[in-house]
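Let us practice reading a record.
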Amino acid sequence: MNIVGKVINGYLFEEALGSGSFGAVYKVSKANKIYAAKVLSETYILDEFKHEQNRITREIDVLKTVKGKNLIKYQEDFYFKNEFGVLEYVIVMEYFVGETLRKYLKKDVSLDVLVEIFINILHGVSDLHNTVIENEGIIHRDLKPDNIMIDDKLNVKIIDYGLSKIIDFSSITSTGTQIGSPLYMSPEQLKDSKHIDYRADIYALGIILYEMLTKNIPYKAATLPELLMKILNDPIIPPKQYNPNISDGIENIIFKATAKEPFARFQTIEEFLDAFSKKDIQDELVTLGKYYAWIYREKDVTEQFEKQNNADIIYPIHVQNWMKKLHQHFADNNFENVIIDPSTQRLSYVAFGNTKGLVELPYAPDKGVISLEYLQNPQKRKAYIDKWYATVSMGRKVILPYHYISNTDYPVDKVDDWIRMNIQLIDESSKVVGNEIEKYAMISIGLGHLVFQADKILSYFVHANVNGFIVQVSDMRQLNEQSLGSYIDFMVNLQKYTGKPVIALKVPIPLGLALIGKGIHGFSLGLASIDYFDEQYIKEEKDSFNLYSKFYFPQVLSFLTYPKKDTFAFEQIYTYFGGCNCKWCVGKTPIEIGTGDKGIQLHHWQMMLEEVDRFNQYEGDERITYLKKRIENALHNLDSIPKDIMASQKNTDYYKLLKNLKKII
């Protein structure tokens, strides 16, 4: 259809500037002003935008609120019927004298200038993403060199933002029209183009930067299906293979932006921009491993231990009123090295009402539980967060409010709702806390959901505004080789992609050491009875009382149990392993050590610090070699315990864990 020379809606269509797969662009004038007009045929418009004729108008109207010097401005939109009776939509835009980035890249331009141009592109996309309409920012969805304009003064303008939400690409395909290259579409966009977020734009920007600096594309493919498979599955060709002048920092920026999984990319344009000043994103977080003692009621033990050791502690705040001396001890020491756990996850279970301390928390509900429905109410959620902060604000390190994601009191399809609610609590409580206090996000979830939804969980939590993460996984006794590998991978990826320390809460000791060996910051255990976390624990009607004592034996990398106060049973196993020479056991008889819990807990705490300190002396593969040898010795020692000495010590779950760990680390 030729409309050059015609006047439509007061606009004179002066000349055709170009055409694409789903429309044509014209130079138009009105009242002595020049504009650009994009004409879209109804044939290519998604059905949902056709049902109400003015729906497309409203969709584009919201884009008029977008402001930014690097964004082309929308002026007006209307529709008309052409001579064949087909509805044509017209979008009138600012007229920008320049050329597409695609054409500009044919010139010989220095790397520094290209990076400067790209940073201006990022600023334009940032303005787009930060324009909030109906609680959502605008995603471009179709970023590519053809949709970026540049003039001879290096001014940049981004065009066509939002249009791909309106275009029906299936109609284009069915008519045989060539779609623009899918090269810039992220893997998740290829799978489901309707349900994407800002990170799809970040992927496209990474591909654009690659093309700008290499004058090549990151995949070699002879056909479109081959290209699609490579986008979904293959790593990009390293940029320096095409241009050795690209710095390591810039190459790593491209690698991060074009990661297959959204959670592995920059999470915001601001992060993307920051990378150009830092140039160090290839450096992963490197920390010395740490052991965190989960302190529940061990006031005397803590006071005595801290006189001789630096201790890192996780403290559940609900014990503050019935362990007042423990709380006062932490307060007297200004809560130094103490991470306060708000115990909020237990408030989602009816049984919390029978647990001493929980009902006295200011943020505990007066009746019922802290349910999803309760938290979805903005006023109740705000009051909940405010009361929580008033309770924990004396701390220097706090865990933000959290709830168990796999709550079995809810149907399985509510798991995603719990994930989203935890993220919302993190976001809103983080803003209340500010930056004066060190903030941790707790991920508390069932093993099955973690294994099968690891990518989804990472994609939600990876951008949390916190200083670190604590991960608590239920059903750990069910670990097999596959789920163990998935759990370790999740922990490694969480720390790698956030660059923030991760602590594993309540895991078996060899698993905690294995995580440190993989670079994870630390692990935590209770000093008394809790060495695994299980959802059943937070569903119980009262805090559990253990009829058994536990003593840590480094020879088996674990506790061995015996009936409380049965010093003869303890003496047998203690003597078999040759006793202990730690500062809390040396010079004492088995009966002195085994009578009461204090000495056993001091020994355990000391052993954990020494195990981690010893582990930290090794680096890289040496750590894993050392741990494998320890695991082999532990398996041998468990097999060697005489049957008449507490034959039940060969715990089947723990034995399997050791064997699986040995295979996969």
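A brief commentary: The chain has four domains: 7-94, 99-158+181-278, 294-401+408-438+503-539, 551-664.
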